[in-house]
Design goal:
Elements (H helix, E strand, L loop, with lengths): L6 E5 L11 H6 L1 H14 L3 H7 L2 H4 L2 H22 L7 E4 L2 H9 L5 H21 L2 E7 L3 H11 L6 E8 L2 E7 H13 L4 E4 L12 H13 L9 E2 L10 H11 L6 H10 L4 E5 L4 H9 L4 E5 L2 H12 L1
């Protein structure tokens, strides 16, 4: 049985996108369909058509991926609020881009203002990737202290690599200058990494290579009207509750070049009474990470009509 007092809602980031995302939800719920239509109108092009029909390469362009994930998550959350107006999760968190979705769902800013900020974030990250191409790699079965040491040894004054995503124990992503990433990958293999997976990206997210986007993104966050959230949101950078609009701004502004502390985020939620997790939006990538962090936790996706039916059953069983 799902008890919302012990349940956290999670919002996915890049890597969770897929052609067809949100289509079934829009067909089943008029409110979801109106959310996609509102996004299309605000953006000035049919994002929903790209989400539902592809092509995949265009959907996977960060400039489109970020608003696509945001809109799907907010559409699903709006449906949840409509169906269960008296239910609220104990807390929320989002992975990277998903932090913006979580903050919008928590009332920190409007859907429209959040969409504008998400689109701008995608534009700036893409520009930074074009100006300063880098790389990312997933390292399996090495701990954070070992990878921090490896990244420090692989970095030089002009080529830096750092831990970008602490996703779960045994799965860490490093990011930075391509040559530094390659050096770190070799050192990780020597140190006993079970597997090393170079990621097919040119954007070195959550690394110093995003610094060229920092000033403009800081300005975009500052220009976004923001309120204190009415639901607790755990920030990526702090891995703690963002208690005010000022703290939310600071966490978002630091995010581009800072580590996503996902393991610490889930551990913080668990330490504060959360035992169940609902992934709001496309897919269940985050639930897979949660299972690695908290093997006993219950997880449910909430992005399709079938997911809502399963959620309803979990509420009453």
């Amino acid at each position: 049985m799902i008890h919302l007092q012990t349940t956290a809602f999670l919002f996915p980031g890049q890597g969770s996108q897929a052609v067809g995302m949100g289509h079934e939800l829009a067909q089943a719920y008029p409110l979801a369909r109106r959310t996609f239509e509102e996004a299309d109108e605000r953006l000035g092009f049919s994002l929903s058509r790209l989400m539902w029909e592809g092509p995949e390469a265009e959907l996977s362009d960060t400039i489109n991926t970020q608003p696509a994930l945001y809109v799907h998550s907010l559409a699903a959350f709006r449906v949840f609020v409509h169906l269960y107006p008296h239910l609220r999760p104990a807390a929320m968190a989002g992975h990277s881009l998903g932090e913006l979705s979580a903050l919008a769902a928590a009332g920190a800013f409007s859907f429209e203002d959040g969409l504008r900020l998400v689109r701008r974030r995608g534009e700036l990250m893409k520009q930074a990737g074009e100006q300063h191409p880098g790389g990312m790699a997933a390292i399996l079965n090495l701990d954070i202290p070992t990878l921090e040491r490896i990244c420090a040894e692989a970095s030089t004054d002009g080529e830096v690599v750092q831990v970008a995503n602490d996703n779960c124990p045994g799965q860490v992503v490093i990011s930075g200058a391509r040559a530094a990433v390659e050096r770190a990958v070799e050192k990780a293999r020597i140190a006993g990494a079970r597997r090393v997976v170079p990621l097919a990206v040119s954007i070195a997210a959550h690394s110093p290579l995003m610094q060229s986007a920092q000033a403009e993104f800081r300005r975009a966050v500052d220009e976004t009207p923001m309120n204190d959230s009415f639901l607790p949101v755990v920030g990526n950078v702090s891995a703690r509750i963002l208690t005010s609009a000022a703290e939310a701004r600071a966490d978002l502004q630091a995010q581009l070049t800072s580590r996503v502390r996902w393991t610490e985020t889930i551990q913080w939620l668990a330490g504060n009474g959360v035992t169940k997790f609902v992934e709001v939006g496309n897919g269940s990538v985050l639930l897979g990470l949660v299972r690695r962090i908290l093997p006993s936790a219950l997880g449910l996706p909430l992005g399709t009509a079938a997911d809502f039916a399963a959620f309803e059953r979990a509420l009453v069983e």
